[in-house]
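Below is our example:
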Amino acid sequence: MTDHADYFEHRHIVGFEETNLVGNVYYVNYLRWQGRCREMFLKLRAPDVLADVQADLKLFTLKVDCEFFAEITAFDELSIRMRLADLAQTQLEFTFDYVRIDPDGEETLIARGRQRVACMRGPNTATVPSLVPEALIRALQPYTRTTVAPLGRTA
């Protein structure tokens, strides 16, 4: 996990348990890796937000998708690269690039995904939309190509 100019990176090496009978990665794992990348971002770059999640904040995934360009197999090394694509008052949208890193250092884009997340608060039976926490906005600022701020706020 490292920082780059405009994305948060989570590295992963594909295991046998993530492949299907013909040896390529089962599609659902791409979605799992999006979630893992987002979790590691919170742990490493937004610990105050992670504490808020453990208290009352809920991050509901509203929509997720992934477009596939090439297959990968066991022991391929991946760089999952997360960027902030959109920021509204109560929602965020992330993009994820899945890049295979070959032993010679060559990089190949193998898939691209998106994830829309809503911030909510309250008990499970009565959650209500909540503003994206300022700490999360600050933590995400380096991972966008343009200045993104929700309505009524400044970046």
In short: The longest strand covers residues 107-121.
